[in-house]
Amino acid sequence: MEFTTVGVVGAGVMGVGVAQNLAQTGHQVILVDVSEEVLDNAKRELRTSLRAFALFNRAAAVDPAAVIEKIEFTTDYELLAKADFVVENVTEDWSIKEKVYEQLDRICRPEVRIAVNTSAISITRVGSVTDRPQNIVGMHFMNPVPMKPMVEVIRGHHTTPETIDTARRFLAEMGKECIVVEDVPGFVSNRVLMLTINEAVFLVQDGVASPTDVDRIFKTCFDHKMGPLETADLIGLDTILKSVEVLYESFNDSKYRPAPLLKKMVAARLLGRKSGEGFFNYR
């Protein structure tokens, strides 16, 4: 195994999924976040996710205790000095990401590659706050991470072919393939998906159809497994709003303006599955 120890920064939904996938594929994981409370919640989410994974993948014979044993939960960023590769998963807020990368650039060994798990923020912009822009690469994992075989990999302006090759090998160790795309806001998947979800919210807001009927059209007419609003609940409505706002700011195009109903639901903490209620109820 080329990447024995992997740093995972951010213990939210995506960070926990990445850490679980890495531990299940034999890697030692250093999972970093800013508070013990967040890390305790991450442990609970991880146990729930492992039970679900075992339920849907009986042939995989996953031992939840052995997986958790491979993950070191910590608030100490300095431990990332041991990492052979780092995947950053903090919230889609530039003011937060910028500070995280200043720390990572100082702590991680010079040759270490750092993957930005983002749905919309520019990889080139992230690279610009480090002394290693050639080692910065985008990795847009899909949720739930352990269940999804494909990753959108994003090449920043300074990302070298060697870093792209390293990213491919890293993902192969996780059991995943990748598609490499260029660095534009939203890349391919979210430039399409966020616009679709935001427009679906407008349809509900305008009283055109209920959330159930909007999703039924996509599931029954297009054979999608999930409709756009169920997908939004899975991702988290706060993440959706931040992503749409980044697209709006990046393109200065009104087609990306966030739906007022989306803003209202986020303000009311109706965030989807992670809060127990979004467009649908999960309690």
From TrEMBL:
Residues 5-183 form the 3-hydroxyacyl-CoA dehydrogenase NAD binding domain. Residues 186-282 form the 3-hydroxyacyl-CoA dehydrogenase C-terminal domain. The keyword Oxidoreductase applies. Keywords: Oxidoreductase, Plasmid. Gene3D superfamilies: N-(1-d-carboxylethyl)-l-norvaline Dehydrogenase, domain 2, NAD(P)-binding Rossmann-like Domain. InterPro entries: 3-OHacyl-CoA_DH, 3-OHacyl-CoA_DH_NAD-bd, 3HC_DH_C, 6-PGluconate_DH-like_C_sf, 6PGD_dom2, NAD(P)-bd_dom_sf. This is 3-hydroxyacyl-CoA dehydrogenase NAD-binding domain-containing protein. It comes from Streptomyces durmitorensis.
